[in-house]
Structure formats: C-alpha cells, structure tokens
C-alpha cells in the first residue's frame, strides 16, 4: 500500500486549483449511513477538488457531523463508496490516511498547559501531547512560526493552552492541523461560541490561509451563514440526512434552497462577499 502524497507540489504538474478537471481529493458515491436501523445519511454524492472550499450547512440533526466523520476517515459508510485522497475507505489503513488530513476538532482533548507554539508543533506528530523523545526539526519549527503568523496568534505564541480564549484555541488548532501540509482541512463549527471580533479574526485568517495555499481544499460545517468566510466556493445543504443541493456557492446558497433546507422561509443576502440569513416573514409587534 503506498502512502498518499501530502505535498502535491512534489508530484509534478497539476491541473489548476478549484477546477473540476482535477482529481477529486474527496469523493462519495451513493453513501448511506445507517445506525440502529435509522438512516443518518442517504444517497450522498459529493466530489471535492483542490482549491475548493465547501460549506456544509443544515439544521440540527441533519447529518453534518456524520458526513464530516466519513470525510475525515473517522467512520465508514454502511453502503456506498468514500474515496479520501484517492484511497477507498474500507481498503486502506485509516490511521495512515488521517495523518494527511487536517481535522480540526473543537473538543481537542488537551488538558496540560502547553504553549500555543507547543500545541501547534504537536501537529507534526499528530499527537495530543508532545513526543518527548523527538525534537522538532528546524523546518518544522519554521513552519510552525509561519502558521502561527498566518493565523494571527504570534502575540500569544508563549501563552498557555489552559489560559487561551476560545478564539485563540480555535486558531491554534487550525495552525496545528496544517503542520503536516494536509491537502484537505476539515473544520467542525470553528466559529461556535466566538464573540464578534474573534469570529471576524478567524474568518479573515481562513481567507488568508486559502489565499496563501491555493491547492488546499476545505470543508467547514456550520449552522450559520454569517460564519462562512468570503473565500467559500461551494456549499452542500443537508436536511434529514439527504442532499437538498450541492455545487457552486452562488447557485446553492439561495433564498429558496436554504429555506427548503431549514424548513422555514429565510431570506439570504450576500454583501461584500459575506452572507446573512433572516426569517423572510416577520410578525409585527401588534400581531
Ligand atoms: N451512533 C448513532 N446512533 C444513532 N443515531 C445517531 C448516532 N450518531 C448520531 N445519531 C443521530 O443522527 C442524526 C444526525 O446527527 P449529526 O450529529 O450528524 O447531525 P448534525 O447535522 O451534525 O447536528 P448538529 O447541528 O446538531 O450538530 C442525529 O439525529 C443524531 O441523534
């Protein structure tokens, strides 16, 4: 079994980023997930290419986390095919595959007081705690500094995990996830619980990151359209485990399709690249 190449630039000429002609980094075909006799996902078809940044949107219980777990090689489908970085789930060592994915888990199980820099460096070994028998290479140390800078947490580099704000933790985990140069970044509700400034700083960091790494692809799960970075290119709308729509963001993020997804009349507007959603029919105070 060969190892997926984590450094696309080393594998010769590639098609331009974000174009459907390129090999997909992720592909699902006819995917069902059934647990305890219940369909959590049904008939999911999806292809994600280099340079594409997908929003995965849907109401509570729609199946977003279930789908993200498949895309991150954390679980397997009941039926259908999932190819991650060209490898079919069920035929590949998923631990090896996961090492090439940047998966940002908001419930990162770290309790020791590592500094931001130390947490970012644990991304090089895909461990929670530092490997005490392994010193980071100069290249890893330099990459960690660059990522800390991109994510705008240089001032906090010496701060300890236990004292970080939720926003600083989120950005630290994204920098950590990027340490092994993954081709794909999976983000599960990265803006949940952030105040306005922290959310805006996080979204700016994601835009900058995507600009600096044009071949990177990402999937970002959220319930809130306001939490989508401007650089979002595609969207998948899920309701009750089924796809309502999937494709380029301007075709999918429409008043009609988002209303159908959330089963409520919602009006979508896009202003300066960002989205807002409001209930379309509002009652007046006298009603
Ligand atoms: N192991 C399981 N067995 C049975 N049902 C499950 C299991 N895991 C999740 N579910 C159910 O599957 C449905 C989809 O869950 P999932 O967490 O994927 O939704 P979600 O879209 O991420 O929701 P939220 O927005 O609330 O996080 C939910 O109704 C959940 O209760």
UniProtKB/TrEMBL annotation:
Keywords: ATP-binding, Nucleotide-binding, Transport. Coiled coil: none annotated. GO terms for molecular function: ATP binding. The keyword Transferase does not apply. The keyword Hydrolase does not apply. It holds the Pfam family ABC_tran. Residues 1-12 have a biased composition (Polar residues). This is ABC transporter ATP-binding protein. It comes from Kitasatospora misakiensis. The lineage of its organism: Bacteria, Bacillati, Actinomycetota, Actinomycetes, Kitasatosporales.
């Amino acid at each position: 079994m060969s190892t997926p190449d984590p450094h696309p630039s080393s594998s010769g000429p590639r098609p331009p980023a974000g174009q459907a002609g390129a090999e997909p980094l992720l592909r699902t075909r006819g995917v069902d997930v059934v647990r305890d006799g219940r369909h959590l996902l049904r008939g999911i078809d999806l292809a994600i290419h280099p340079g594409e940044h997908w929003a995965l949107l849907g109401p509570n219980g729609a199946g977003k986390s279930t789908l993200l777990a498949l895309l991150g090689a954390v679980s397997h489908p009941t039926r259908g095919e999932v190819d991650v970085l060209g490898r079919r789930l069920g035929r590949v060592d998923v631990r090896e595959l996961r090492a090439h994915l940047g998966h940002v888990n908001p419930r990162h199980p770290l309790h020791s007081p590592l500094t931001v820099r130390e947490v970012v460096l644990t991304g090089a070994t895909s461990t929670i705690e530092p490997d005490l028998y392994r010193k980071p290479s100069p290249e890893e140390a330099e990459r960690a500094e660059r990522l800390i800078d991109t994510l705008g947490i240089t001032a906090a580099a010496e701060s300890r995990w236990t004292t970080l704000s939720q926003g600083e933790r989120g950005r630290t985990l994204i920098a950590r996830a990027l340490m092994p140069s993954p081709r794909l970044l999976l983000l599960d509700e990265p803006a949940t619980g952030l105040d306005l400034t922290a959310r805006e700083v996080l979204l700016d960091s994601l835009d900058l990151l995507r600009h600096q790494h044009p071949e990177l692809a990402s999937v970002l799960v959220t319930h809130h359209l306001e939490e989508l970075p401007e650089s979002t290119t595609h969207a998948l709308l899920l309701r009750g485990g089924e796809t309502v729509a999937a494709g380029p963001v301007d075709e999918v993020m429409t008043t009609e399709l988002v209303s159908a997804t959330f089963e409520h009349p919602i009006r979508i507007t896009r202003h300066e690249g960002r989205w807002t959603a409001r209930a379309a029919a509002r009652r007046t105070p006298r009603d």
